[in-house]
Amino acid sequence: MLTLITLCFNGCFWGRGWLMPYSFQPSYHKFKKMCKLNELPNDEYKYNKILAYFDTDLDRLDWEELNREAQIAYNSRITIDYRAKTINYSHNIPKNKGRLGYNYVFLYPNSKERFSKQNLPLIGVLATWHSKRYYLAGNEGSGFYWSENILTCIDVGAKIQYIKE
Q1: Which of 23, 68, 74, 85 has its CA 20 to 30 A from that of 4?
Q2: Taking the CB of residue 157, how many other CB atoms lie within 10 A of it?
Q3: Is the pLDDT of residue 42 over 60?
Q4: Do residues 97 and 114 lie in contact, with contact meaning Cβ atoms separated by under 8 Å?
């Protein structure tokens, strides 16, 4: 009986880790909802839905500042995906709300394009969710440590639409 009580309280105190399925955790549903935004058609509706998480929209974005920072960031906060022939540029620092971390990225096939409302880049959301499910991991003889399972949008089957429609 004591083992059962310890096991139940351990799960509650450690963030409902192993005892609670993902489907019972509200932040997981918010994470999945954010990831599914990437699957919407690439239009102003999708972009405004993504930007709403950052308290802005296409009308309030500072396009000149974005273009200036994109030229500076060409050598820093970008990821080049050669398979999709895109450059992912993250304008701001990711937001973290508890277990959920997210940011938006501009996806554009040519680094020389200028951002504007008339020439919209593709916009996607990158989200991560900390499962609070720890497991014992190690690295090649230097010791063991507790690692955490972190899910991304790819783990829930969401895909970013790279093609402008």
Answers
A1: 23
A2: 10
A3: yes
A4: no
Residue 40: domain span? 22-156
Nearest CA-CA partner of 102 in 54, 164, 46, 147: 54
SS (H, E, C) 55-94: CCCCCCCCHHHHHHHHHHHCCCCEEEECCCCEEEEECCCC
Q: Which residue has the tokens 């802005």?
A: 56
Amino acid at 26: P
Q: Which helix (H) or strand (E) holds 35?
A: helix 26-36
As for how many domains the chain has, the answer is 1
Q: Which token pair is 22?
A: 């993902």
97-137: per-residue pLDDT in tens? 777 877 777 665 455 666 777 777 777 887 888 888 878 88
The model scores a pTM over 0.90:
no
Cβ atoms of 158 and 38 closer than 8 Å? yes
